[in-house]
Specification:
This protein is an alpha/beta fold. The chain has 16 helices and 15 strands. Strand 5, helix 4 and strand 6 form a beta-alpha-beta unit. The two termini are 24 Å apart. The relative contact order is 0.12. The chain binds adenosine-5'-diphosphate-glucose. Adenosine-5'-diphosphate-glucose binds next to helix 1 and helix 13.
Length: 466
């Protein structure tokens, strides 16, 4: 039987809970849950010497195959090239960008290590699905070792415009590496356009559809849009069931009937948290009637500790939250509660359901699943409204959210005020049209369409084989 082999930098093992805070993990698990298969990647542990693995853990129909990384690789490949070169370029945030040749060399070495450790687990009819920017060269490494299975790549972050991409000294190598895949997927048509532009600039596209011969056997690469979605029913059910959970009950009790604005993000500079805190301050300044009438909860568990920019942002946000509370709090009111920790999904969906406004204002985001979860968790009779950054991929599908430019602090404050005061009729109308979009492009549609594209590639490869 055809198996699906998912490969991502990090594997969220079923035993660990904090790993689950991340959109990629949510997507990969959903991709595997239905038909089972292998999830291959790093287990999160670093070692001084030779990394061990793969270690296999079975959970239901999913085999988790995990390897270790050396401390050096973790520093140069993960903290270095992946998260200090590629991540800032993909998010148009050059202030955080740095390039070091030895970090890129280690990035290639780790991709070759992934290939070597993965190959013994592969069967000839497996479909291989590689996730995200950490593993762009993996297909070329596998091809070099003679692996002819269909290999797909899905980019969870934005694909930057050519003028941004060109900042990376090695962008041409990365483009060539992407051409070794059978299927390359993006969240939005804009990402796909940028990719095709970049290919054309190198003479790698056909100028019309990014079709390109990528194998010795003449098979073609297929680039397309696969917007990631969520399991709408699961979110709705979790949200409805968790009203009685301790965390949710305690949170509601402390609101004392005030309207709630909520933000839930990984603690990352791309999520626009500092700008969002400023916008909340501006809401209280520009619309003083909201003082003591609204509360803002920001949930943000830390990620990528050890990367300087991530440690800095955590400190900056703690200070800003303290300043807002110092300036506006009353004996019976704490304006901002900033929770630097992860919660289980059920609790988050319960929080969303109790909120009037979902604040999703990244300064750049591939898609953003939080806004989709927020919408799905709302009660149909009295739904809350998302304030959504037009610079998140999700804005392409969710034009009925209140769209904002996250850098326009006054504009975001206006949008918060508008969301807090929108009539029930308008909220219901917008919510029902957004829910229809979520159902059309749900997680099953994402997975099914990507796997179908891989199966098609398999068919073509077989036909093209001599
Ligand atoms: P992320 O940048 O991690 O994902 P996002 O899409 O919002 O961003 O996904 C976050 C996921 O983690 C959501 O399912 C959310 O519920 C969960 N989460 C966030 N904070 C949490 C917390 N405090 N506790 C527990 N869970 C938490 C990357 C890209 C996105 C893209 C996804 C999927 O950056 O643009 O949408 O992959 O492709």
């Amino acid at each position: 039987m055809t198996r699906l082999v998912n490969v991502s930098n990090r594997v969220a093992l079923p035993s660990g809970s904090s790993n689950a805070a991340g959109g990629l993990a949510v997507g990969v698990l959903a991709a595997l849950r239905e038909h089972g298969g292998i999830w291959f990647g790093w287990n999160g542990r670093t070692v001084k010497g030779e990394p061990a693995g793969p270690q296999l853990t079975q959970d239901g129909n999913i085999t988790y195959a995990t390897i270790e990384l050396s401390e050096r690789s973790h520093e140069l490949y993960y903290n270095g090239f992946a998260n200090t070169s590629l991540w800032p370029v993909c998010h148009y945030l050059l202030g955080y960008f740095r390039y070091e040749r030895r970090e890129f060399d280690e990035y290639r070495r780790v991709n070759s290590l992934f290939a070597r450790k993965l190959i013994p687990l592969l069967r000839p009819d497996d479909l291989i699905w590689v996730h995200d920017y950490h593993l762009i060269p993996l297909a070329s490494e596998l091809r070099r070792a003679g692996i002819n299975n269909p290999i797909g790549f899905f980019l969870h972050v934005p694909f930057p415009a050519l003028e941004m991409l060109r900042v990376l000294p090695v962008y041409q190598q990365l483009l060539r590496a992407l051409c070794a895949y059978d299927v390359v997927g993006f969240h939005t048509p804009r990402d796909l356009r940028c990719f095709r532009d970049a290919l054309d600039s190198q003479g790698l596209g056909d100028g019309a559809g990014a079709d390109r011969r990528n194998h010795a056997n003449g098979a073609r690469m297929h680039a397309d849009v696969f917007p990631i979605g969520i399991d709408v029913d699961e979110c709705q059910q979790l949200a409805m069931q968790t009203g009685e959970h301790d965390h949710v009950k305690r949170m509601v009790k402390h609101l004392h009937g005030r309207q709630l604005l909520i933000g839930v993000d990984r603690l990352d500079y791309s999520k626009g948290l500092e700008e969002r805190f400023q916008a909340f301050t501006r809401l209280l300044e520009n619309y003083p009637a909201n003082r003591n009438q609204v509360s803002y909860i920001q949930v943000a568990p830390k990620t990528r500790t050890g990367v300087r920019a991530y440690d800095d942002i955590r400190e900056a946000l703690e200070q800003t939250a303290g300043q807002i509370n110092g300036r506006f709090a009353d004996i019976d009111w704490v304006p901002v509660r900033y929770l630097n920790r992860a919660f289980d999904r059920a609790t988050l969906m319960g929080f969303f359901r109790e909120s009037s406004v979902g604040l999703v204002t990244p300064v750049r985001d591939g898609m953003n699943l939080v806004v989709k979860e927020f919408i799905a968790s709302q009660p149909l009779y009295d739904p809350g409204m998302p304030v959504l950054s037009s610079l998140a991929g999700a804005a392409h599908e969710l034009s009925d959210a209140i769209l904002v430019n996250p850098y326009d602090v006054d504009g975001v404050a206006d949008a918060m005020h508008r969301a807090l005061n929108m009539s029930e009729g308008e909220r219901r109308e917008r919510h029902s049209s957004m829910l229809a979009v979520l159902r059309r492009n749900d997680i099953t549609a994402w997975r099914t369409r990507f796997v179908e594209a891989l199966l098609q590639a398999q068919g073509q490869n077989q036909t093209a084989d001599p």
